[in-house]
Write a structure and sequence with these properties.
Layout lengths: L6 E8 L4 E10 L5 H20 L5 E9 L2 E8 L2 H9 L4 H12 L6 E10 L8 E4 L11 E4 L7 H9 L1
Antiparallel strand pairs: 1-6, 1-7, 2-4, 2-5, 3-4
Helix pairs in contact: 1-3
């Protein structure tokens, strides 16, 4: 089944363990400064490629979105510890990319970067995908794409079923 194949009906995601949602992105603040923002935008590809080729590093899945001047990646991680290790390990591509950003862009305001990290305890999530391809948490490694009834018809039920 293609990742673009629509799954008619209502579905949810099921994942048994704790996980981390990591939202990271960049914003081009000064379009004419290509020499500043193009290297920043190109830095993410090698990081994702490294993580996808080494699932033991903890990345479960990723989705990229582009809106205007902002590129956002929503990532699902097995643990915060693995995310932090990847960010700080000199042998992984993030640390050098971060150093390059600070040296070449710093606080100039030419390019913005941001991230948000959410630690999600097992069962403390809810999601619905109606007539959608398998995506988001349901597409992450270790998660299942399941009929919504398996977790509850309403958001409150899906959250209460695992937090009872």
């Amino acid at each position: 089944m293609s990742r673009f194949t629509v799954q008619p009906g209502r579905f949810s995601a099921s994942i048994d363990d704790d996980f981390v949602v990591f939202v990271i992105g960049m914003r081009v603040n000064k379009l004419w400064k290509l020499h500043k923002w193009i290297p920043v935008s190109r830095a993410m590809g090698p990081m994702i490629a490294e993580l996808m080729s080494h699932p033991e590093k903890g990345l479960l899945g990723v989705r990229t979105m582009w809106a205007g001047r902002t590129i956002t990646l929503i990532q699902y991680w097995r643990s915060f510890e693995q995310l932090e290790h990847f960010a700080r390990d000199k042998d992984d591509p993030h640390l050098q990319a971060w150093r390059d950003f600070n040296a070449k862009v710093g606080t100039s305001g030419d390019v913005g970067v941001y991230h948000e990290t959410y630690k999600v305890p097992a069962g403390a999530y809810e999601c619905v995908y109606s007539n959608m391809p398998v995506m988001g948490l349901a597409a992450a490694n270790g998660a299942e794409h399941v009929p919504v009834a398996r977790r509850g018809e309403a958001a409150r039920e899906r959250l209460a079923a695992v937090n009872a």
